[in-house]
Amino acid sequence: MLTPDQAQERAHDIVRRATAAGADAADAVFAADASSEVSVRLGKLEDVGRSEAEELGLRVFVGQRSASVSTSDLSSAAMDALVERAVAMAREAPEDQWAGLAPEERLMHGAAPLLDLADDGAVTPAELRELASQAEEAARSVPGVTNSEGGGAGASSSVWALATSHGFAGAYATTGYSVSASVIAGEGSGGGGGMQRDYAFHSARHRQRLDAPHEIGRRAGERAVARLNPGRVASGAVPVVFDPRVGSSLLGHLTGAISGQAITRKTSFLLDAMGTEVFAPGVTICDDPHRPHGLRSRPFDGEGLPVSPCSIIENGMLETWLLDSASARQLGLEPTGHAARGVNGAPGVTTSNLFMQAGHVPVTTLIEDIALGVYVTELIGQGVNPVTGDYSRGAAGFLIENGEITRPVAEFTIAGNLKDMFRSLVPANDLQFRYGINVPTIRVDGMTVAGG
């Protein structure tokens, strides 16, 4: 694996070649990764995998015309051919008055923040197998678990570099480790609800920060057993409580609605919401790219701009769009440092470590006044209209009766409109940072539940 300095030089080198070949401006991304994965099932080794890749993506501008190309052939001759092809393609491309590199005066300069995104511990396939085996064994040991879909463990390392023709060059390395287990509880056919599956996993930048594999397995087994013999839900308008595992999807719908492309294309249900109350007072949603060893931390964005923690929603108010340079120009605004860049194509936008701040009440208090409701642990399907905010998804979880989570329920749908859901949303105080997007337990009143 190349070092960050070597990766940065690779990206910088092809940018120099592009400008020498006639490009007015250019930027390039170099990405390299290596990963190992091991899976076991029923105590036996099932699969061992290893992958390594190095790719380079180049974007060139000729006036207001641009083209993007990518390659995994990193020989010098291939680089020259790639540059010639990219410049030729750009000369034939349509003009785009909004396209271009990030504003030069906004580029990040100086030392990047120290985010502790990589460790130096190598993991052998034998060690990964042991982690996967421990997780699966713990899951299968839970009374009521009858079968297994397997345990898995993985380790990866990567380096990402960006260089531009107007003065930016940067790179950083990351590592990642994960352990998972998925098991089945009960007997009989799945159609009658006799068998139920569930899973648990954990991932971390540093191996020492991984949950113990037996804890991950135990969670998977207990979740599967808890879902046995699900009942049905009566249709009606009731409070819906989202487990943190699925509640994070609500923030995904938010970020899609406030992305620069959605706003410039006028395809967002929050099109005119800037500076208005989108959530209830007291709800704050933050993005923190500088979180130490965060799963989505990064020292700069996909265009070379500095990144910093910010509040997207502050006390219920929408504070910012998520803008790359192109969408910012179109809207007459400044880019927000949320640009994301892959090896292929132009930048888009993304958040980093996005989270909803914890509320003030424990989960038991959040649900204690619910006479009848549902606690959702699984969402199915993609029934969300990003233009209108209409929301309808299949779900499974547990019934809430007289303020307590009681019996499992399945095969129902929950529906509403995201604008109404956001305004009525109440967070509990149980926020934990376990994923790329993190939320506490969330309650949304007045949703329509339709039983199967």
From TrEMBL:
InterPro entries for the chain: Metalloprtase-TldD/E_C, Metalloprtase-TldD/E_cen_dom, Metalloprtase-TldD/E_N, PmbA, TldD/PmbA_N, TldD/PmbA_sf
Gene3D superfamilies: PmbA/TldD superfamily
Secretion signal, residue range per the UniProt entry: none
Domain (Metalloprotease TldD/E C-terminal) ranges: 235-451
GO MF: metallopeptidase activity
One GO biological process term: proteolysis
One Pfam family it belongs to: PmbA_TldD_3rd
Cellular compartments per GO CC: cytosol
Domain Metalloprotease TldD/E central: 121-228
Protein origin, superkingdom: Bacteria
Segments forming domain Metalloprotease TldD/E N-terminal: 26-90
Span list, region Disordered: 132-156
Family assignment from sequence similarity: Belongs to the peptidase U62 family.
Protein name stated in the entry: PmbA protein
Organism: Sphingomonas palmae
